[in-house]
C-alpha cells in the first residue's frame, strides 16, 4: 500500500518541527520533536481524510515524491 509522503523539518521561526503532507493541501502539524510532529500530522491526516469523505470531496492519490526519487533510476540504488 502506498501512503502519503511526509516532510519533517525544523522551523527556526516556530522553534520546533513542522510535519507536512504535500498531497493533502494545508495538512501540516507542529511538534517540539520530529517524533511529536509526526504523531500530530498523522492525526491531522486522518482528520483531513475524514472531512473530505464526509464532505464528498475528492481525496488525492499519493503522488508527491522528493526530487531525489524522481530523478533516480532503479540502477542508481543498485548494490553493485
Give the ordered list of helices and strands: EEEHH
The total tally of domains equals 1
> Helix fraction?
25-40%
Report the uncertain regions.
none
Structural class, from helix and strand content?
Answer: alpha+beta
Distance between the termini: 28 Å
CATH architecture: 2-Layer Sandwich
Count of DSSP H/I helices? 2
Number of strands: 3
> What overall form do the CA principal axes indicate?
flat
Secondary-structure blueprint:
Blueprint lengths: L6 E5 L4 E5 L7 E4 L2 H21 L12 H5 L9
Antiparallel strand pairs: 1-2, 2-3
Outline the structure in words.
- It is a single chain.
- This protein has 80 residues and is an alpha+beta fold.
- It has a single domain, classed as Double Stranded RNA Binding Domain (2-Layer Sandwich), CATH 3.30.160.
- 32% of the residues lie in helices and 18% in strands.
- It contains two helices and three strands, in the order E-E-E-H-H.
- The chain has helices at 34-54, 67-71; strands spanning 7-11, 16-20, 28-31.
Task: Summarize the model shown.
Helices cover 32% and strands 18% of the residues. It has 80 residues and is of the alpha+beta class.
Keywords:
single chain, 80 residues, Double Stranded RNA Binding Domain, 3-stranded antiparallel sheet, 32% helix
Amino acid at each position: 500500500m502506498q501512503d502519503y509522503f511526509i516532510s519533517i523539518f525544523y522551523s527556526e521561526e516556530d522553534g520546533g518541527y513542522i510535519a507536512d503532507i504535500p498531497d493533502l493541501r494545508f495538512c501540516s502539524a507542529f511538534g517540539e520533536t520530529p517524533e511529536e510532529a509526526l504523531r500530530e500530522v498523522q492525526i491531522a491526516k486522518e482528520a483531513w481524510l475524514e472531512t473530505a469523505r464526509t464532505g464528498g470531496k475528492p481525496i488525492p492519490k499519493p503522488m508527491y515524491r522528493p526530487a531525489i526519487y524522481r530523478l533516480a533510476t532503479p540502477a542508481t540504488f543498485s548494490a553493485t
